[in-house]
Amino acid sequence: MKAKLISLIIISFLTITCFGQKHLIKADALHKAEKFKKAIRQYSKYLNKNTDNAIVFVSRARCYRKIGKYKKSLDDTAEGLFIDPRCKQALKEKGAVIAIQGRPWKAIEYFTTAIEIDSNYADAYCARGAAYFLQDKFEKALEDNMKAIEIDSQFETSYYNVGLSLKELLRYEEAIAYFNKALLMDTDNQLTFFERAESLYELGEYGLAETDYTNSITYNTKLDPWENTKNGWCYYGKGMSNLALENLTQACADFKEAMSYRVYEAEEEYLKLDCKEQPEAEVKIVVPEVPVVVKQEVEVHIFPNPIKTYSHITITNSKSSNVYSLEVMDLFGKSVLSVSHISDSHIFNRKDLLTGTYVFLIKENGEILKSEKVIIQ
Predict the structure, then answer these.
(1) Residue 28 is part of a domain; what is its CATH number?
(2) N or C: which end of the chain has fewer CB within 10 A?
(3) Which of 119, 142, 175 is the last residue of a domain?
(4) What total number of domains does the chain contain?
(5) d(CA 369, CA 3)
(6) Which is nearest to 126 in space by CA: 168, 166, 97, 162?
(7) Residue 276 resides in a domain
């Protein structure tokens, strides 16, 4: 009987362990893929059965930080430190949240404690360097990130951070070299393209800068609120580069786009160039017995001098008993936008489409009724 009881306990323990490991493996994969909300759900399932794993609390804390849930992140790091007061990962994660919340000097204490526990903890050197950077202590930031690279030569974030510090120290050519190394490891990093563009602009390499600003816009996916460089500043930098290259029409378009993101410096350049508004475009698309109109309407946002900064495209269907769909394709045949249901009218933001030429396809039950080339300016 005793042997049977022990056997049942072992089986139950193995079942719980396997159950937990399945969720942990899935959570780590989702975390790595930056699907933070889904990762949190899997970590939570694991922690429901395994409450003494400090590292898993830290992993969930990082996911909470990445989606801006800073209080929950701090709660999880507190759990991790309760389980293991010398958990270097929990100390580093707690410091990261405190830095984001505007107390980088306090965050440095946690990063330093993590380094005292493990003098080869590259993540903590990188994080402490970032905290020094936030306090404009660029030499110290540079020193810590160089130490992180010395420990781990493949630490992409530290190459980026070294580039940032060098840029602030006006050592632009050296900064570009480190941004280049960072991009070799992470080829579509929006932030690195932006900072390299800024450095290239300062060196007078306006053509290369314009290309990097464009890449930065292309790769500007959702990042942490504290990390995200707004598209507006990318468009502003792109406009300044085109202005230096005397591409005035494109510069006007870039400044106008930047203004839609509330970059007021772009408004000053826009007014200096005396950029002319493009006339409203109205393209009529006629389908059998049902006239459909595609037109651009303008909404005015009040700056010191009123300037038209927003455009919308309205598609109206005068016979609402019919249901149509819209597909927008670029000139390479790639679908860039679709609207599945237009029964009366549909308005979508002009910013959904970059300046250029597109083909608008009006469909009914998947069959193309009419196509029209539309120029967005």
Answers:
(1) 1.25.40.10
(2) N
(3) 119
(4) 2
(5) 77
(6) 162
(7) no
CATH assignment of the domain containing 348: 2.60.40
Query: Can you tell me whether residue 38 is helix, strand or coil?
Result: helix
Most confident of 54-68, 139-153, 184-198: 139-153
Angle at 229 between CA 244 and CA 152, to 5 degrees: 105
Q: Does residue 68 form part of some domain?
A: yes
pTM over 0.85: no
Contacts of 77 (CB under 8 A, 6+ apart): 57, 58, 61, 90, 91, 93, 94, 97
| Beta-strand relationship, 356-364 and 367-376 | antiparallel
Q: Where are the beta strands (DSSP E) in the chain?
A: 282-287, 290-301, 307-317, 324-330, 335-342, 345-349, 356-364, 367-376
Is 38 contained in some domain? yes
CA separation for the pair 124, 119 (Å, rounded): 9
**Domain end residue (candidates: 67, 90, 119):** 119
Does the pLDDT of residue 290 top 50, yes or no?
no
Q: Is 178 helix (H, G, I), strand (E, B) or coil?
A: helix
Bridge partners of residue 368, in order along the sequence: 363
DSSP state of 229: P
- Of 5-19, 90-104, 280-294, the poorest mean pLDDT is in 280-294
C-alpha 263/C-alpha 257 separation (Å) is: 9
pLDDT in tens, 41-60: 989 988 888 888 899 999 99
Q: Tell me the pLDDT band of 203, cut-offs 50, 70 and 90.
A: very high
Tell me the residue range of the domain where 328 lies: 282-376
- Could you report the per-residue pLDDT of 303-335, keeping only the tens digit for each? 222 223 333 444 544 444 556 677 777 655 667
